[in-house]
Write a structure and sequence with these properties.
The structure holds 2 protein chains of 2 kinds. By secondary structure, chain A is an alpha+beta fold. Helix content of chain A is 27%, strand content 28%. In chain A, helix 2 crosses helix 3. Chain A starts with a helix and ends in a 14-residue tail after the last strand. Chain B is mainly alpha-helical. Chain B has a domain of 47 residues. Helices cover 43% and strands 10% of the residues of chain B. Classes of the chains: A alpha+beta, B mainly alpha.
Chain lengths: 132, 70
């Protein structure tokens, strides 16, 4: 539903689509949250369905005539990978604010001059996944 | 986990903070493909820790920085 609608579904929407009780859907989301398969916010709404973001971020991805937000640069490429689609990633350099546009074709970026920096060590990624 | 124009921009953005790890955008695209290409498969289940560590290792992302928690 997230992919089709290009936005995060609510518990009620998923319950309606699947014919399951809303409480059951919410409990399933909580289990997936605890397994790091998705991230809920304090209201138990979808915050991340990695690599997709339920909220606007600095990384937008256009593919197949639709657009999504990614949680980070890694996930921006991950959206194209998950969709098995070419796409365009739009971001800005966090240092200077210069727009950064990357076209992804058959999994590869059309430019090689950019660098990816990961600040947090892998052992701590899930200590605060939103900050990571 | 951000994209930058150059090493100079990373250093300026970091300021006094300890640097993490930097890789080329081309390597990032490989990593993203290995990590997420199966995400929308109907039979998808979350990767295990060892499966994800194997992806990092295969792409040459070794050392303590890229070591997932056991």
């Amino acid at each position: 539903m997230f992919v089709e609608r290009a936005r995060a579904p609510t518990v009620d929407e998923v319950a309606h689509a699947t014919g399951r009780p809303a409480a059951e859907v919410a409990d399933a989301w909580q289990r997936l949250h605890e397994a790091h398969a998705l991230v809920l916010n304090r209201y138990r709404e979808l915050r991340m369905l990695n690599p997709f973001s339920a909220v606007p971020t600095a990384y937008s991805v256009q593919a197949g005539g639709r657009s999504w937000y990614a949680n980070c640069a890694w996930d921006a490429f991950g959206i194209c990978a998950a969709l098995h689609s070419d796409g365009r990633i739009e971001a800005t350099c966090p240092d200077c604010g210069e727009p950064l546009i990357v076209d992804v074709r058959r999994g590869s970026p059309d430019r090689s001059d950019l660098l990816f920096h990961c600040l947090v060590p892998a052992s701590q990624w899930w200590d605060d996944i939103v900050f990571t | 986990m951000n994209l930058f124009r150059s090493e100079e921009h990373i250093a300026r953005w970091l300021g006094p903070r300890k640097p993490g790890a930097t890789i080329a955008v081309t390597k990032l695209a490989e990593l993203a493909h290995a990590w997420w290409a199966d995400r929308l498969a109907p039979e998808w289940t979350p990767h295990t820790r060892d499966e994800n560590q194997a992806i990092l290792d295969r792409l040459g992302l070794g050392g303590e920085f890229w070591r997932l928690p056991g």
